[in-house]
Specification:
Blueprint lengths: L1 E12 L3 E5 L18 E2 L6 E4 L5 E7 L2 E12 L35 H12 L6 H14 L1 E2 L10 H7 L1 E2 L1 H14 L4 E7 L15 E8 L2 E5 L11 E6 L8 E3 L3 E13 L1 E3 L5 E3 L3
């Protein structure tokens, strides 16, 4: 399956403003690219990439005064299958976890394990550890929170979402991540693309999406508390302890988001740089 994805962001500044963006796909998806993945700007601003501590691709640039469009458009190959399911995946004892996984067990900026621990054990202590326990957490969060763009708030934490019972996809992911960590299941926050592929079209503007991954049976598995069911066509951009580690843009000054568009669609062909069609059966 071939997916065409990308975005257009228009940012307005009143002074030259340094910016770090996390708008590239994860290096693990580079081999799947059919066309180059390039971040372009309307003013041909010099940009430099580096990898952060979580192996995310970060792009540095300085926005000039006025309006700047930051955009990307690419095609990527996907296996066309829903998220893999591994119902027999086991939960590791903490003493057996790799060193690099341990940071995904502790609290973070948006995931207050200390405040949620008692509630987590009350809700899920009776559920068998492993995949079943994670699925129980996903089901709980999906039912516990009411979704809606009108509930979006950039400062809402997992504890606040648990009590307010509303949120957007990042709140669903934060609460699920925090509850998993309370149950000694390593969990990390993920951001990326998820189009309406394999489902009826949703009559809302396309946006980036947030989900989470857990470490079971020696590998990371994707879960989505917002949608609850396996989905097709996830394209991972960044992962970390929570949304603070995966911010789409971090500006060191005043920046206004004037326009924001995201596209993620299944296609049968795209044009290469040489204008020759690249085809792949859908």
């Amino acid at each position: 399956m071939l997916i065409r994805a990308g975005y257009e962001l228009v940012l307005e500044t009143s002074a030259p403003t340094p910016l770090i963006s996390m708008l590239s796909i994860r290096p693990s998806r580079f081999p799947d690219l059919i066309t180059p993945h390039r971040i372009e700007t309307s003013s041909s601003i010099p940009a430099h990439d580096y990898r952060d501590a979580f192996d995310n691709i970060c792009t540095r640039m300085t926005l000039p005064v006025g309006f700047t469009m930051v955009s990307c458009d690419f095609a990527i190959e996907d296996n066309g299958l829903p998220d893999p399911q591994s119902p027999h995946a086991i939960q590791h004892d903490v003493k057996d976890l790799p060193h690099e996984v341990l940071l995904y067990l502790v609290g973070s900026r948006y995931c207050e394990t200390d405040l949620l621990c008692q509630s987590a054990w009350w809700h899920f202590g009776h559920v068998a550890p492993g995949w079943q326990r994670v699925q129980a957490i996903v089901d709980f969060v999906h039912d516990h929170l009411t979704y809606g763009y009108q509930y979006a708030r950039s400062t809402r934490t997992a504890w606040e979402a648990y009590n307010e019972r509303v949120g957007v996809c990042r709140d669903f992911a934060h609460l699920a991540v925090a509850l998993c960590r309370c149950m000694n299941i390593p969990a990390r926050y993920c951001s990326g693309y998820l189009g309406d592929i394999g489902i009826d079209p949703v009559d809302v503007p396309m946006d980036f999406h947030a989900w989470f991954e857990v470490y079971l049976s020696g590998e990371w598995h994707s879960f989505d508390a917002r949608h609850r069911v396996p989905r097709i066509g996830r394209i991972l951009m960044a992962c970390g302890r929570d949304a603070a580690d995966t911010a789409l843009t971090t500006a060191f000054g005043s920046v206004r988001l004037a326009s924001f568009k995201v596209h993620t669609d299944e296609v049968t062909q795209v044009l290469s740089n040489s204008a020759e069609p690249l085809s792949l059966a859908a």
